[in-house]
Amino acid sequence: MNRFTLGFGLQIDRTYFLVLALAFLTATILGCTTGGISIVPLGAKLQNADSAFDEAETTEVRDEDPEKMEKNRQKQQGLYDRAMTLYSEVIERDTKGKYAQRAHYQIAKIYKRRYDWDNASNHYQAIVALDPTGYYANEAKGGTANIRKNREVIKTKRAEYQNYKAIYDNEPTDETFNIAAEALYEVARAYESLENYTEAIRHYERLVEEFPEHAKAPQAQFQTGNVYFYTLYDYQGGWPAFVGVTQKFPDSYEASQAGTLLKQTNEILTEIKFLVDEIDKYRNKKAVEYRKTGRKITPADMWVMGYGDQVVQNFQQIAGNWEKLRNYPRAINAYKTLARDLSHKKFAAADALYRIGTLYQQNGEYERAIAAYEGLFENAPESTWRNEAVYQQAVCYRSIREFGAAYEQFKAYMSITKGDTPYLREAEQIVRQYELDQDEDGYKFYEEQEAGTSDQDANSHPGMGS
Fold first, then answer.
1. How far apart are CA 128 and CA 231, in angstroms?
2. What's phi and psi for 442, nearest 5 deg?
3. Which residues of 53-68 are buried (b: 16+ CB within 10 A; e: fewer)?
4. 115: left (phi > 0), else alpha (psi -120 to 50), else beta?
5. CA distances from 390 to 203, 444, 451 (A)
6. How many other CB atoms sit within 10 Å of the CB of residue 195?
């Protein structure tokens, strides 16, 4: 029996993981289908592209059946292709470049997933050409520098590893052993930084195999599990990697961490499966069938009468559990499903919309956070989260260097906030700073910031080129 046994008696077999994989798929049913490619507003087209990208990112590729695994892989690549097509259409249509910058950035991400660094760099350069001082330009410059730096690290450290490994094999010394192992570890880290996780894992595993006595070996084994769990969200792949830490390096610090982590992860995944199964049990099967025939079914009709609150709690717990695993895409999916399929539960739906915004914000996806908060304003304007969302939206605008929008949102927060709230003083301080005109050229600080000019020099101002 293909079964893993941990030191504390926990046993997990692969069949169990297959069951969990089905649960993951069920938990991500949230209407990720992307719309057609007809003429639609740029913002909506960008959302369609994002939906295809999100679905690609959360597609479960791993399967014990090689044919199914290949089909899953092809499905994922097809979704990336669709996302890239839609992002490219945004670029072609966006004459002002606001949406195009983000589309270029997302295309660069897809190329990085495919280890095509040159094309990723080309799209980064296109962003800088559109707006050299903007938020995405700064991100693009960092992305280009990261690609250049880590490709050079891989080149030099791989050569160093090969040279010193050959020397060590002929005449073993502590020095050559250490240099070769450290170089191999740096190659793995560089691949991970480049998001080439396949090669990162391969080199971490190679270090463990060739240098099991080195101090970096337990770290490499542990990091393999981390990549699987927290970057690829591949629990089947990560499980044996973490088990390997406890088996190969039982006395290491990493082994104690891995043992605790596996125990906690097992409990969380088991609970998610239970909650998903329970949600399915509370679905009104007749309503589901009616909807398939085209009949209009309200969200309230979708659930067995009297169990709506229980379903809400289940979705909230599922989302919270995915957050514990740092699986933010699936946490967001759970909240989106709640907000859509239980929209009649007004407070819970509003809470879910707010949480979607905060998760995007935590993940550095500021424009998507802004859109999510906008969804809260549109669908739940009386929500208790409204004021908080206005403030956080202002923070997001500031993060992407849209200082004019940030200024207006901070002022809006001040106007709707009563009493001494946690963010009021900070908002007041930011607004005062934004309204300064230190060089007295008639342009406020936030206008200078957005234009990339100086508020310390009257000859440097937004109107210079007009």
1. 28
2. 90, 0
3. bbbbbbbbbbbeeeee
4. left
5. 46, 22, 24
6. 16
Ordered DSSP codes for 350-399: HHHHHHHHHHHHHTT-HHHHHHHHHHHHHH-TT-TTHHHHHHHHHHHHHH
Rounded to the nearest angstrom, the gap between the alpha carbon of residue 366 and the centroid of all alpha carbons in its chain is: 12
How is residue 103 written in tokens? 């589309």
Q: Which two tokens stand for residue 234?
A: 């591949």
What contacts 56, CB < 8 A, 6 or more positions away? Answer: 76, 77, 79, 80, 83
Q: What are the Cα distances from residue 317, in Å, to 25, 272, 430?
A: 17, 8, 36
Q: Can you give the C-alpha Rg of the chain in angstroms?
A: 25
- How many angstroms separate the CA atoms of 395 and 414, rounded? 14
User: Phi and psi at residue 58, in whole multiples of 5°?
Assistant: -105, 5
* Nearest Cα residue to 431 out of 414, 455, 448: 414
Element (H, E) at 3: strand 3-5
Q: Are 140 and 124 in contact (CB under 8 A)?
A: yes
How far from each other are the two terminal CA atoms of the chain, in whole angstroms? 75
**pLDDT tens for each residue of the chain, 466 residues long:** 444 444 434 455 543 444 454 444 444 443 444 444 446 788 899 999 999 999 998 888 888 889 999 999 999 999 999 999 999 999 999 988 889 999 999 999 999 989 999 999 999 999 999 999 889 999 999 999 999 999 999 999 999 999 999 999 999 999 999 999 999 999 999 999 999 999 999 999 999 999 999 999 999 999 999 999 999 999 999 999 999 999 999 999 999 999 999 999 999 999 999 999 999 999 998 888 888 888 888 888 889 988 999 999 999 999 999 999 999 999 999 999 999 999 999 999 999 999 999 999 999 999 999 999 999 999 999 999 999 999 999 999 999 999 999 999 999 999 998 877 779 999 999 999 998 888 777 788 888 888 787 777 777 777 765 4
DSSP string, 288-306: HHHHHTT----GGGGB-TT
The answer to whether 431 and 417 have CB atoms below 8 angstroms apart is: no
Residues 239 and 12: their CA atoms lie apart, in Å, by 9
Matching residue, tokens 């914000």? 361
The answer to whether 392 and 362 have CB atoms below 8 angstroms apart is: no
Residue 365 to residues 158, 244, 262, 392, 396, Cα–Cα distance (Å)? 34, 34, 29, 13, 9
**What single-letter amino acid sits at 205?**
E
